[in-house]
């Protein structure tokens, strides 16, 4: 605690010292650099290689324009971020949804769209980046440390997805093509973007329709014990094998628009984006009592191997939209900025699971229906004012208001009955368990599944920034006040309404030193936070949720907090290249971990009621290296290389001992090249990505995850000044996702390594090929 107070005092003192120094200086840093408007042909026909930008902001920030990604034709923002430092995913193969900056859980990373927070369907408050088509993106920014300008929900850092606006494009282009998958399925991809002037204002309109498809194949082998207890487990303890096809098929529809007017000292902008995801996830699973046999008979017959047949279908419709208005006014007393935004995420899912169990005297049919409806709305208002305190420095003061309302309604219903004894094989019901489905009764809520969360935030901040010679700096304080109200319809009336209030003070400071015109050092320190998971703050008790243990919600949870720092060095290579290295550290306290209440669980002796509580702490640290340059220094100016490597470490203690933060890979790297052939109007390139293994441990389950390498290759041909055609192959090594599950029924069993089940699962989806053309007009 003394260290934290000392650090806060040091940051504040640093700010006051810089303010006093700044007042005597004369350099002017108040003006914003205007970005040049590109023509549509410049975006469509890339005659030059794209490199990582060198940000001039004081805070440590990496900037990647769309030029850096476009030639590999990423489908989503998540696909684009696979090529930047320290971003990992624990997604299914050929998918990139929950970004894990520095390997940490997605809830530790702040996701912004055009600098503003957006809601998502996930209970950990994270936003899946595969919701944003890459074609709408202007650039992505990785902000490594926090600033008082932004909300402090950025323990791992911030990913800001900046969409195109009217001041970036003059003209338009259309894009069209298709993607081909392992099973010869072809899906379309089309889009169009236009930007131009309307009188003194400018507009941009963009639309995209993207087919989404993922034909995964999974195999699971299950055992009653593990190799750590029995070296012969593969033969002695075999239980069953599951073969599964898991196909995700859908369409994404996206639209964004901006209107802007800049007249002297007044800057007005209105913007909107909308994304709809329509998809169906279909799983068909067969369990066998043999490691290799695939017969269709049931146990008890001469060739009997089939144990269960399961069909799971989830119809998903998600709508995500945002509306924003911004006004900036320069006047005699400085610059005033006002922002008003509304964002909404609607998630509707209807999931059915039908199973026939043949491993019994009379085959049994089970049918489940789960209806999910989540509606998350955020209304925000921010106001800040910047005024000079000398010729080379300014102070910014401001406030932020956000009202968040989240309604969750999840209801389930089950059917179960024995089938006639004559039904003894999969061919008896048209090769699908759905043949036995009956009309479902009205669904009903389960504990914790119907609730409303109202979260109101009131923030105030102040910062001072400026430049003096080779030094640029920023230091500030942000005060965040949160009021939470939870209404749960599944608990007793006396517990149905709960309230929780908490306040956090977040200091931050950054220093940039231009040692030479080519060499730069950045130093940053900040306090950040992570708010509790929304499903943890319900007062409901979920029976047998963690193995055989119950989970009791905790409305009194407070945010986790972290003190951290970044130290980086960056060197410019020629006029375009850059190489950098960064060291980071985070000390996270008030960690939300599951604690044993000591109360016996609903499953009887040996089980307990567990509850999330603010307890313990952990450390996260590592080093990040990135390189982006051409090879003109060896006479190869048309050859660009890029690469990054991040070594990620952490330590945390839980009920079972020491471990890394759940899901954090030990490393992630990406290397590649682009070769331009100017005389042929062509280019080609390749990129290879690999991330290290990750381990998760919670009560009742431990998971180890490993991925194979991901190789992508593109070939491009340009026609004149307005047409580009690209062929891209991704997942060319057919990389596998391999998981090992240790499952336990009680805490005592997990401590004593007495397994309920040991499972090995492998998943693959095959290479993906796409052909894409763009035409500028």
Give a topology summary:
Elements: H1 2-22, E1 38-39, H2 40-44, E2 53-54, E3 61-65, H3 66-69, H4 77-81, E4 87-88, E5 100-101, E6 109-113, E7 116-117, E8 137-143, E9 157-163, E10 169-180, E11 186-198, E12 201-223, H5 233-236, E13 238-263, E14 266-288, E15 306-331, E16 334-357, E17 364-390, E18 393-418, E19 444-468, E20 471-488, E21 497-514, E22 519-530, E23 541-546, E24 549-552, E25 560-573, E26 577-589, E27 592-600, E28 608-614, E29 617-631, E30 636-654, E31 657-659, E32 667-677, E33 682-691, E34 694-698, E35 701-707, E36 710-719, E37 723-730, E38 737-743, H6 747-752, E39 757-764, E40 768-776
Parallel strand pairs: 1-10, 6-9, 24-28
Antiparallel strand pairs: 2-3, 3-8, 4-5, 6-7, 8-9, 10-11, 10-40, 11-12, 12-13, 12-39, 13-14, 14-15, 15-16, 16-17, 17-18, 18-19, 19-20, 20-21, 21-22, 22-25, 23-24, 25-26, 26-29, 27-28, 29-30, 30-31, 30-32, 32-33, 33-36, 34-35, 35-38, 36-37, 37-40, 38-39
Task: Tell me what you see in this structure.
This protein has 777 residues and is mainly beta. The protein has one domain (2-776): TonB-dependent receptor, beta-barrel domain (Maltoporin, Chain A, Beta Barrel), CATH 2.40.170.20. The chain contains six helices and 40 strands. The protein has a 22-stranded antiparallel beta barrel. Strands 2-3-8-9-6-7 form a six-stranded mixed β-sheet. A four-stranded mixed β-sheet has the order 23-24-28-27, with no helix packed on it. A hairpin with a 3-residue loop joins β36 and β37 (723-730). The longest helix is centred in the N-terminal third of the chain and has 21 residues, at 2-22. It is globular, with a radius of gyration of 28 Å.
